[in-house]
Amino acid sequence: MIELYTAATPNGHKVSIALEELGLPYRVHAIDLMKGEQKRPDYLKLNPNGRIPTIVDTDNDDFAVFESGAILIYLAEKTGRLLPKDAKGRSRVLQWLMFQMSGIGPMMGQANVFFRYFPEKIQPAIDRYQNECRRLFEVLDRRLGESEWLADDYSIADIATWPWVRTYKWSGVKVDGLENLKRWRDAMAARPACQKGIEVPVKLPPLDEASDAARAFVKGAQSMLQK
Ligand SMILES: N[C@@H](CCC(=O)N[C@@H](CS)C(=O)NCC(=O)O)C(=O)O
Questions:
Q1: Contact (Cβ atoms closer than 8 angstroms) between residue 53 and residue 68
Q2: Which of 9, 45, 76, 180 is the most exposed place for a label (fewest CB within 10 A)?
Q3: How many angstroms separate the CA atoms of 196 and 29, rounded?
Q4: What digits encode the pLDDT tens for the residues 65-85?
């Protein structure tokens, strides 16, 4: 059994999508980020970074794994799926996985902070992160113009990237003209595992600007930034 510590965010959704895709039994432990549950001493023993997601594999001596990219690799290796074994195929998946972990995730995270959560609107910072996200999206679009998936086949690289890219409106990133990215976004959104994975631990209402849920979310994120 995989114990999954998570919240309704892109990094959390990567892992629930992978678990759904792989058909592994898992138990969800919702971590309330606004209450700071990710900083509690018992949780820090599992994840020294004090963030979600984390897994504990009870079939492997309660082995704990933190960092979403490392979790995806662990689950792929545990099942022998979604990560090829040949050196070149494996490397191509890991290249796109690292591209997500070091680029798409951090840049969209910062775009969210400056565009949504900071009460002060610092336009050069907003532009910097939104433009960098757009540049990264163009890299994805070019790749998806030559390949159905990010690597040779559907893999943990697609699973890592989609939960972030699908939230482009929330980060204020423009996707006009990126038709290959759109084709891939639609293909990902149609997968049952992706649909189930993004409802873990809870189904969020659409975070459009007008909704109460969005206002509460921004307020919560602002208070978290102050901690
Ligand atoms: N590099 C980490 C990033 C994890 C991360 O930033 N998680 C966010 C939610 S998406 C979080 O737990 N935020 C709470 C906090 O910053 O206290 C990973 O990929 O696992």
A1: yes
A2: 45
A3: 16
A4: 999 999 999 999 999 999 999
